[in-house]
What does this fold into?
Amino acid sequence: MTRRLRLALLGLAGVLVAGLVALLVTVYLLLQPERFTAMLQEQARGAGLELSLASPASPTLFPRPALELQGLTLTAQGASMPILLAANGRLALPWRTLFGGPTVISRLEIDAPRVDLDALQAWLASLPASGAGAPNIPRIDTGVRIARGTLVRGNQLLLRDFALDAGSLLTGEPFPLVVSAKDADGTPMQLRLTATPRIQGNALQFNDVDLNLTRGATLSMRLSGEAHWHGAADAAATLAGSLTQANAGRYDIALHLTPANQSEPLLLAVKLDGPGNHVDLRLPPLGVARWWSRIGNEQGPQLTVPPGSGHVDVATLDLAGVHVEGLQMQITPAPTSSSSAPAIPATSTSR
It folds into this structure.
């Protein structure tokens, strides 16, 4: 190799290194990771949450502009237990955002998140009963993806292999959502949802809701209807459809969600009618979640009456490994502090 050729190759290598350095500097200046980190943290604080990262966001341009997030932690303000811990995340951004356009996230991806249901419920309970003004739909052009997640309550595993795949979230456009997971026993579950979000006055309206839920090969449910949300626990929905259970038959089911107010929490009215089974209940969803966790307690199920009101008339019931026959139950609301004697639910069961 001649001296001139060696000098030419060294010069070319220098140009390539300089170009690479210039590209990295350009990527950093265009993406401005601190701008997006601050935006996410500000939005979290607006919802009463604190978002922190294990290390500063790192930018990349290929295969498309994005920010890599390492060690995400999401905690309610003033709380010690995180709501969410995640190994890493990725925010994909449109090219127009890089060149001074609106701050828009094209796609959000989160890997291996761990969500604590107790911490989530505590945050939801702390939210005000209603929001101020119409909620904004966070524009996500090409969707959200969550993989390898777990849902826990303290140290108790509730769901594993949690995955979520959502399409574009744009006002007036159909929004598809698929969620899958396995329970602590390894039984697979899947939820498929489509709805069209719109802002109607001061409410976020969900039109043309179509929900399909399956659990293993033994249970499937399909519901359709409408829903709207004013913010926090001010939500309402009306859904109706059918539930099919293996070896039990088909049931008609209707759900009606009413928003929380100063005297009552968020309430879900459930009506179910089918072969030998009739249910008419009004239940607080968060209270029911706590009750359900006690039913599935690994130390042994605690068979207590769920919170709420209404009646249950069930020929057979299989719940958390417990088989019950001929269950008749009248649920009365919990007594107020001024009550002189507690109400006693009337139950009649045979096993």
Notes: The first strand starts at residue 49 and ends at 60. The chain has a mean pLDDT of 78.
